[in-house]
Amino acid sequence: MRYLKADISSPLIFSNCGNFTSDYRWLHMERIIDNYELIIMNKGTMYIQQDDEKYELKEGDLLLLEPERKHKGYDYSDKGTSFYWLHFFCNDSCKIQNAFDARSEVAIANSNPYFNGLNSSILIPTICKNLNLDRINVLFRQLLHLSQSAYYTKHSVNYSLTALLIEITEQVILNFNSSVEKPNEDDILPEMLQWIKIHMTQNISLRNVSHEFNFSKEYLARYFKKRMGMSMQQYINYLRISKAKQLLCNSNLSTKEIAHELGFIDDKYFLKLFKKHENLTPKQFKNAYNMTFINNV
After folding, report:
1. Angle CA(168)–CA(182)–CA(208) in degrees, nearest 5?
2. Would residue 25 count as lying in a domain?
3. Which segments constitute the HTH araC/xylS-type domain (predicted)?
């Protein structure tokens, strides 16, 4: 299994799309194309291969065909077979991942709400079974409509395409979550994360956690980075900044008092760290929240 991971900080590039229904027994042509093609089955069965890999697609199945790889039908589909097809190009920031790397990223994202490795990406597998077609039908028909409309900007179809791929990615992640095995009872990570959360206001560091759980600092640093997608200090800082935002919005504590509350010895370092994470000072953040609150009264 391979996965397309593509950056969506700017929308992906739409080429064309359609809704195919065969009027007779039908065999997909043999060809090589220069873009990605997405096939989503609505009815019947399609028999198609990409290079030497053969796929039998049924209702709710998705197939991603990659550029510069030969694909063709290897058997006939019955009359009435129906599927959506969509051609698109990626921006420069895209890559094909193996299943292990893709699943590892999803697992990290599930374990760590502060991990942003998938925040600005779509993740589309070569093959995906049993998609929920309800929302996909709505989004695809919107895309079909936009592709046939004389909108003043082509960005309309690019953003619609990207929204569709985000929905597919969401379903892929949900399918992954429902299929993973039960957590290993010997896994120390959940207990470690809970300990860090409880003690984050005590100016803790990797040294404290390694002592508490009887690991060497070097091993724990590698283990935590692999499991959480960031260093332990980065994770602790995310927890502290998240708590600081809550206190700024829901208390009358001063910035200095909040820094002390969260275990920062130097309130100037707290200011610098907050600005780095939020692109706002604590005072600016509090004022922005208050304005939002007033506007919603």
Report:
1. 100
2. yes
3. 190-288
Is the pLDDT at 158 greater than 50? The verdict is: yes
Under the banding of pLDDT at 50, 70 and 90, the label for residue 139 is very high
Contact 140, 88 (CB under 8 A): no
Structure confidence at residue 292 (pLDDT)? 43
30 and 159 part of one domain? yes
Q: How many CA atoms lie within 13 A of 145 on its CB side?
A: 7
Buried b (16+ CB within 10 A) or exposed e, 165-203: bebbbebbbeebeeeeeeeeeeeeeeebbebbeeebeee
- pLDDT tens, position by position, 209-242: 999 999 999 999 999 988 888 899 999 998 999 8
Tally of structural domains, the chain: 2
Neighbours of 85 (CB within 10 A): 15
CA distance 87 to 38: 6
pLDDT band at 176 (very low <50, low <70, confident <90, very high): confident
Token pair listed for 64: 């991603």
Q: Please report, for the domain that includes residue 99, its CATH number.
A: 2.60.120.10
More confident residue, 184 or 269: 269
Report the CATH number at residue 223: 1.10.10.60
What's the CA gap between 201 and 56, in Å, rounded?
55
**C-alpha radius of gyration, the chain, whole number:** 24
Q: Say how far apart CA 243 and CA 235 lie, in whole Å.
A: 13
**pTM value?**
0.71
